Amino acid sequence: MTKIFYFSGTGNTLWSAKKIAELTNGDSELFNIGVEMRKAAEPIEADRVIVLFPAYAYQSPLLVRHFLVRSEIRSPYIAVLTTFGTDPGGALAEAHRIFKRKKMEVSYFASIPSVENYVPLFGPQSEETKRRRLVLQKSATEEIAGDILRGKTNSVWTLRPFSICTSSLFRLVKSFFVKAFEVRASCNGCGICARICPAANITIEGLRPVFSSHCEQCQACLNWCPRRAIGYLRFDPDRSQYHHPEVTVSEMF
Asked: Which string of DSSP letters, residue by residue, matches 67-125?
């Protein structure tokens, strides 16, 4: 039995999690970390445990970090994987440090290139860039699934001071970015943004989304809104929306 725990905003990480589940003999279960964090913590037991998350500002999303800190994993094989749009930075190193402090050994680390979706900083990606990155993601995911199936082991360099500084700054200021969300008149209060948010950061009040301060900047609400009603800094919903083409909104729920 393989248990795969994932965090995903626009479906990149979920797609890789699904593909790895398919390629590791199909004897796998998928768990949404956002959902798991709203449950009481219980020991995680399996033949293989895989934790898969995107790199945010060179480290893991804060919610993922909390998950890693609190989780008690009982497995002879633990794999930690990160998807990334620009650079994975020290995301894997951070996970390694957390597990090391808990005296838990990680067997395998790997990073997976995917489509960059942090439009407020990097701007929208061209269609050619998206196609190229999707091909890279597929190839890397398949290779990593093979490594896991064969029980490959490796290590990761943990000294990443620049990543730590960058991520610390990002985590410090990201709660202030909430004020930049803009809800257009086209919003009909359907609630998809609230249902899809992995951090449970959105509530619907008076048929309008209200954003709290523990936003992970995952871009899910922006990219999955069916009416393109949510804007954010450089993100123009009329031309910037992206989610993995092989992931549906119902799977994200």
From this structure: HHHH--EE-S-EEEEEEESS--TTHHHHHHHHHHHTT----EEEEEE-----HHHH-PP
Dihedrals phi, psi of 82, to nearest 5 degrees = -130, 135
Q: Which amino acid is at 219?
A: Q
Instruction: Give the β-pairing of 181-183 and 202-205.
Output: unpaired
pLDDT in tens, 20-69: 999 987 789 999 999 999 999 999 999 999 999 999 999 999 999 999 99
Same domain, 238 and 213: yes
pTM assigned to the model: 0.94
Same domain, 118 and 232: no
Q: Provide the token pair at 25.
A: 């003999």
Bridge partners (DSSP) listed for residue 111: 82
Phi/psi of residue 67, nearest 5 degrees: -65, -45
Ramachandran region, residue 100 (left: φ > 0; alpha: ψ -120 to 50; beta: rest):
alpha
Q: Which of 140, 165, 190 is the last residue of a domain?
A: 165
* Nearest residue to 56 (alpha-carbon basis) of 167, 133, 151: 167
